[in-house]
Amino acid sequence: MDVRQLEMFRAVVEEGSFTRAALRLHVSQSAVSRQLQLLESELGGPLLHRSVKGVTLTPEGEVLLRTANRIERDIREVVWEISETQKLKRGQLRIAGGGTVCLYVLPKLLKRFHAQHKDVDLLVKTGSTIAVLQLLRNHQLDLALLTLPIPGADMEVRSVLREELVVITAPKHPLTLRKTIDARSLSEHPLVLFEPGSNTRMLVDQFFADQQLPMTVAMETESVEIIKAMVASGLGIALVPYVAIAAEVRARRFAWARIHGQRLYREQGWVYLKSDYLPRPIVEVLRVFDEMKSEFGEKPPSRKVT
Amino acid sequence: MDVRQLEMFRAVVEEGSFTRAALRLHVSQSAVSRQLQLLESELGGPLLHRSVKGVTLTPEGEVLLRTANRIERDIREVVWEISETQKLKRGQLRIAGGGTVCLYVLPKLLKRFHAQHKDVDLLVKTGSTIAVLQLLRNHQLDLALLTLPIPGADMEVRSVLREELVVITAPKHPLTLRKTIDARSLSEHPLVLFEPGSNTRMLVDQFFADQQLPMTVAMETESVEIIKAMVASGLGIALVPYVAIAAEVRARRFAWARIHGQRLYREQGWVYLKSDYLPRPIVEVLRVFDEMKSEFGEKPPSRKVT
DNA sequence: GCAACCCATGCCGAAAATGCATAGACTAAT
DNA sequence: ATTAGTCTATGCATTTTCGGCATGGGTTGC
């Protein structure tokens, strides 16, 4: 049994004639005749009485007609429903970033994106790398901009930003006004850090491990804004991406410095499920990002001349 | 969209794997892969996430799965339902006859038929030729044994019996003991007749019209049994098929005679819808009838020697 | 690093569907 | 009564579709 056959059957019943059914379906009459024969032979008995005045249903035909109608309706509905689901999906971008990214990158990016695609609903989430990856795997999220590296080979990763981590100090802090700070003095001051487990924190941990120096932890938090507030109130110093303090630096509300003889970078990259077909919004947002890349790549100015 | 594709889709979802679905359906894995691709391209988007651990449904897939399951169930049910209907039909014989036939032919015939086909439900109806034909046309009746001729070219007619009409009289009637009765004396006695419209009545009407003799109608009724009772009580004489009085003649409860120099016959034939496929019970009952034909062809004995 | 497994795909042969032409049956109208 | 028109069935040729085989690309697990 085949939906094509059911469609022909329905047409024949409704038109009361093989010939008219064939016209309606834009096929030859012989095709209709044959498919009806196949259907009847499959079901083991005639579905229609062929009389001179037109066809009428046998009891079996009546039974089949009810089912044929229902199946036709089911198919029509499911096709419609799926196309709606897809429209919705095409009109939806679920994106996530680490905490810093959500504050300093996504707003600008999505503002531009939204201007170009007003019909796309935007959903922005944040969370730890692990949590975001989990959401991506569950298809509850389309795209994320995360600090690399990303564990898991099922993810497509496109590295796109290299942000320098710089030391920030409160205006009255003893280290302030230094152009560079050596690792040892960094080690002697209490640090306000990202939470353990975050990639940026790992970078800092790795740095001190490489230097074989101890860390003094003043505090750990997940948000770069909290870190900044803590540093501003004199709780300690911190290593943060330059982009997070660029505005304050221009307003002279923060002092910053590089580590002596060394630069610390963290890498940011777009992350999405490898196996997935890429929905339009994803490719679009990547395109828009590439256009704006220079804006996000803000580098701390060189201090050699300062 | 195709039931085959839906079947494959269901199998893939349930097995969680293209390969295992292919095994279950006894086809190659490539066939499954292809049909799923066709389905997805028809619906305009992926139905499954192909991940390394197995396939999982996309939202569209979820939607389709519900419909696919329902369609599968619908088809299974309608096939079963139709096969039941057909079993029932194969085990059913709806047969009709004129009033006389139902009394003198069908009982013997169906007794024999039933002995050979105990599993066939028998339904016997009677009625006027017109009414029976209507039921045949509506497929509410399979077969009828009627007095010919049958109007309407949509009917298949097989003439099978020729019954002689004879005059019957009450034992004390003045015409009794005559071997033959001439048309004129027939015309002079009141007649108990079949109802107008019946084929047997038409035969009688035609006879008197041919002879250009008037008829004296004592009474009209539809049933040959009533006619016999009326004749027995002396209300008049009648022309009835010999078979209807054969038993009484043997028991000497009725006298009968031919019309002088003339024999009147009525023709009986099997009637069924021309266009219809012949169900087994019909061909069987026709076969059984042919076997027993001699029993029904009981002729009035010749009177020449009497 | 290698074997095992999974899905996708190019290619070919088999099967199915379709169209065309036409037969066969019937109707209706001249 | 004959004829023209209509409807379904069917033989034949063509096109389309489907399935299988072999294989490629990728991943997992030993």
Task: Tell me what the structure shows.
The structure is a homodimer of 306-residue chains. Chain A is 47% helix and 24% strand. Chain A has helices at 3-15, 18-25, 29-43, 59-90, 99-104, 106-116, 129-137, 183-188, 199-211, 224-232, 246-250, 280-296; strands at 48-51, 54-57, 92-97, 121-126, 143-147, 155-169, 180-181, 190-194, 216-221, 237-241, 255-259, 264-273. In chain A, α9 (199-211) links the parallel β8 and β9 (216-221). In chain A, 31% of the residues are buried. Chain A binds a DNA duplex (30 and 30 nucleotides) through α3.
Topology record:
The structure is a homodimer of 306-residue chains.
Chain A: H1 3-15, H2 18-25, H3 29-43, E1 48-51, E2 54-57, H4 59-90, E3 92-97, H5 99-104, H6 106-116, E4 121-126, H7 129-137, E5 143-147, E6 155-169, E7 180-181, H8 183-188, E8 190-194, H9 199-211, E9 216-221, H10 224-232, E10 237-241, H11 246-250, E11 255-259, E12 264-273, H12 280-296
Parallel strand pairs in A: 3-4, 3-5, 7-11, 8-9, 8-10
Antiparallel strand pairs in A: 1-2, 5-12, 6-10, 6-11, 6-12
Helix pairs in contact in A: 1-2, 1-3, 1-4, 2-3, 6-12
The first copy, chain A, binds a DNA duplex (30 and 30 nucleotides) through residues 4, 17-19, 27-35, 37, 50, 52, 54, 153.
